[in-house]
Design brief:
This protein is mainly beta. The chain is built from 11 helices and 49 strands. The strands form 14 sheets. The protein has a 5-stranded antiparallel β-sheet. A 5-stranded mixed β-sheet has the order 3-9-8-5-6. It has a 5-stranded mixed β-sheet with strand order 27-49-48-29-46, with no helix packed on it. It is globular.
Length: 812
């Protein structure tokens, strides 16, 4: 039955479409080629034109009080094999409210596919659920549905909003999803359904299926999370509707998808012997019914796992494959007809065959307050062989407000990231692996559709177009050069960006045909003023508009109803007091930042000449300084204006043009005004480059770089065309603070220690033996504590683990 069977493995791409809709455009040109080889070839071409990445973010908790610090670790992996990926050196972090308004933003440095940071949650935030999302510049080329997102609850005991009205009105979302995509008359189909509220939470109900004669066909109800399935055979000249009856007595009538007279129906059955049976039924009216070929194409996140063909016999074709063929996580099963058009498609989930075995042990199961906790970590494969891994670890108190996060690196990368919309309780599908849970997983697959490519793009060799480049080396500040008079873009215009201060930066770039310009800002940390301008001596009519680096596109995921304030007001009161006390006594200890390693020399490295001006006679004009003791440069006058002349020491040739003159990293174009008006007594250093210098798209006839004492431009008057912007660079890394109780004096300290987050370690790396040991101290808060650790090894194998210990009040 199965002919020309070929098994192939290769990376390719994912995109998103509905499994219920297929595009038939552009497939006829493919009809004459051998299906398997040609499909693989075109997939390979498409794959080489693009690369996609995923981010996963481990936050220390999911529930915060305003005034706390949110800690997080980012894992950047390729979208296909989940291997650590290093194409992006910057990640963008945002916290969005229910209206997708950005409340907090940060840019985080990534190094070899990982990075960690923190965000202080202002005390003025309003209580509610918020979206935490993360993405890279490269990911902005694709749908925001691919950005990492999770829900965080932030509670402000001083700013409580009334959300009761939101809870009263329920908006029902009801969808029916035939397996494979369509219903076909006289052919039985499995139909999955999903019934949720406006927050994506499943609703229990009962349903009755009737036809247009009001005859009852059958009844059905969800298995869990508002999801279920039933089997059904439609007939011509009939229409069907479901009457959904909710526990409060409300009824909603929903039409089933229309059934077609001709087409294909697909069904997947998982047998106990480890075989997958994929059945394809074809209606009698389809052209070339008997003995025509159909093709089955299976890929897991773009990696092709199986391509096979089979002849239709009596309207039926059956494919039997080993269930181990699809890769870990979500696979796409697509059926092509004889004309190489996709006619059926569905998702299939395979539980991971490999898992990073994470063992975490504490030296005790119970501790007193202010006692040391020692933990031993081991990472290995399923056979206990050690594997080195990169992980993050959080230790926090569990109570009525804070529970264990259901989103972890395993269920996110293997499940949630490859499905559209919100997934209720994703960890349920991994913790429960019995037959009932597997059926629930299959229902979840049937109610979602997710691909990152369109078949017509692949088969027509359509080259993707990208508006955002990967920030491989550094953060890129983008902008657009505009003609101030006409409003048109400035083509091939030189632009300059400067960061004045004690650690100055200077960049130049050339605009493209659309006026777009990009400045690569290596080692740009912290908040600074940036100054952008064109050469006003040549291009005075142009201005540079700096673009917002954060995405203005948002996913369609909705935040769940906020109900934290209703859970336990006593826990909320004590938690709020604890946070205020911690901030009162330890605020300065939370503001310690690690200085990043970076080069402090200028962009030209070592100057040819350098002058500390205090070592020389302090003349009162720049003209006198340059004339009296600067060897490589001199001052001349042309048409009554000052000009600078640099002499090459090797050829003794004087350059014809003015050199590049910088003051605290800001280019000075009006040399005459600078020499005549600026005060040299406010400058402490001068570097001189006496040779022709090439930088970016330009060359300069030497460089004179003046540095002021304070890095504040020393009163220099900027050109009115220059744009000055407050700009936030990469985030400085905050040091995690936790008290140490090694001595009796430290233990007996009267300073309160009301930490609910005992420990945060974003860079846990096991050694060649798979081992790592860590320690921390308990606080003054008794209760039950969770140790949450998760991460991956170099080959992309994922793991997570949660263990608990108890803290009791110190015995008197």
């Amino acid at each position: 039955m199965i002919q020309n069977m070929k098994k192939m493995i290769m990376p390719c791409f994912r995109t998103m479409i509905s499994t219920c809709v297929f595009s038939f455009f552009g497939f006829q040109s493919f009809a004459q080629a051998d299906s398997a080889d040609e499909l693989q070839h075109r997939f390979d071409i498409y794959r080489k034109q693009s690369l996609q990445e995923k981010l996963f973010v481990h936050t220390d908790k999911t529930v915060y009080l305003a005034g706390e610090i949110l800690w997080f670790k980012i894992y950047d992996v390729d979208a296909f094999f989940h291997l650590p990926l290093a194409i992006s050196s910057v990640a963008y972090i945002e916290i969005l409210d229910k209206n997708d308004k950005s409340i907090l933003q940060a840019k985080l440095a990534l190094n070899k596919g990982a990075g960690n940071g923190s965000i202080f949650l202002p005390v003025g935030l309003i209580s509610g659920n918020y979206k935490f999302r993360a993405y890279t510049n490269w990911m902005k080329n694709f749908s925001p549905e691919f950005f990492f997102e999770k829900t965080l609850a932030i509670i402000n005991a001083q700013k409580i909003t009334d959300t009761s009205s939101e809870q009263k009105t329920i908006k029902y979302n009801i969808g029916f999803f035939p397996e494979g995509g369509n219903l076909v008359n006289t052919i039985q189909s499995k139909i999955a359904f999903r019934i949720t509220d406006q927050y994506g939470k499943g609703i229990d109900c009962k349903s009755i299926l009737t036809d247009n004669n009001n005859d009852t066909i059958q009844s059905f109800q969800p298995s869990k999370f508002g999801i279920g399935n039933f089997s059904f055979t439609p007939y011509a000249n009939h229409s069907y509707k479901a009457t959904i009856i909710f526990p409060d007595g409300k009824q909603i009538i929903k039409e089933l998808p229309k059934a077609y007279d001709n087409g294909y129906v697909m069904h997947v059955e998982h047998h106990a012997n480890g075989q997958l049976e994929i059945t394809v039924k074809q209606s009698a009216g389809v052209s070339g019914n008997n003995n025509s070929l159909i093709y089955l194409f299976i890929h897991t996140r773009g990696s092709v796992k199986w391509v096979a063909s089979s002849a239709i016999q009596n309207g039926l074709a059956v494919f039997m494959i080993d269930s181990n063929i699809p890769g870990d996580g979500i696979s796409q099963l697509t059926v092509f007809n004889n004309n190489k058009q996709p006619v059926c498609e569905r998702l299939y989930f395979s539980y991971p065959k490999k898992k990073l075995q994470l063992t975490v042990q504490t030296d005790q199961s119970q501790y007193e307050c202010r006692k040391k906790v020692n933990i031993d970590i081991f990472t290995g494969d399923k056979d206990g062989k050690p594997r080195q891994a990169d992980m993050s670890l959080a230790v926090y108190r569990i109570d009525s407000l804070q529970t264990i996060d259901e989103v972890n690196i395993e269920n996110y990368l293997l499940l949630t990231s490859d499905l559209t919309g919100s997934i209720e309780s994703p960890d349920y599908y991994f913790k429960n692996t019995n037959s009932g849970a597997e059926e629930m997983m299959d229902n979840l697959m049937l109610t979602h559709g997710w691909r990152r490519f369109k078949w017509e793009d692949v088969l027509q060799n359509k080259k993707p177009s990208f508006g955002f480049v990967p920030e491989y080396n550094a953060h890129i500040i983008s902008g657009k050069i505009i003609d101030s008079k006409t409003g048109l873009p400035g083509k091939n215009i030189n632009g300059f960006l400067s960061v004045p201060g004690t650690n100055t930066q200077f960049r130049n770039a050339l605009s493209d045909s659309l006026g777009r310009i990009k400045f690569e800002m290596k080692n740009f940390f912290g908040s600074s003023e940036i100054i952008v301008q064109t050469n006003t001596e040549k291009d005075s009519i142009y201005r540079i508009d700096i673009s917002n680096p954060f995405s203005d596109q948002y996913s369609e995921r909705t935040l769940p109803h906020f109900s934290m304030l209703e859970k336990n007001p006593i826990s909320l009161l004590y938690s709020s007091i604890n946070t205020q006390v911690q901030n009162l006594y330890n605020d300065n200890k939370f503001q310690h930042f690690k200085m990043p390693e970076m080069e402090t020399s200028g962009f030209y490295a070592e100057p040819d000449e350098s002058y500390l001006l205090d070592n020389y006679t302090r003349f009162t004009t720049l003209e006198e300084i340059i004339r009296e003791y600067v060897l490589g440069a001199n001052v001349s006058k042309k048409a009554g204006k000052f000009h600078l002349v640099v002499t090459d020491p090797y050829s003794r040739r004087k350059f014809e043009n003015d050199p590049l003159v910088l003051l605290d990293g800001v280019p000075v174009f009006d040399i005459d005004k600078f020499i005549a008006n600026d005060d040299p007594l406010k400058m402490y250093k001068l570097d001189v480059i006496t040779r022709k210098y090439f930088y970016g798209y330009q060359s300069f006839d030497g460089i004179l770089n003046f540095t002021s004492y304070k890095g504040d431009l020393a009163g220099h008057e900027l050109d009115p065309h220059a744009i000055v912007i407050d700009y936030e660079g990469l985030q400085m890394q905050r040091k995690f603070y936790a008290p140490v109780y090694e001595t009796e004096q430290q233990v007996s300290s009267h300073l309160p220690d009301l930490r609910s987050l005992l420990y945060w370690a974003p860079e846990i790396k096991t050694d060649s033996k798979g081992r790592q040991q860590n320690s921390f101290f308990t606080s003054d808060l008794p209760g039950r504590y969770a140790i949450v650790i998760q991460g991956l090894d170099a080959s992309g194998i994922l793991g997570n683990q949660v263990i608990y210990f108890d803290v009791q009040s110190k015995a008197k």
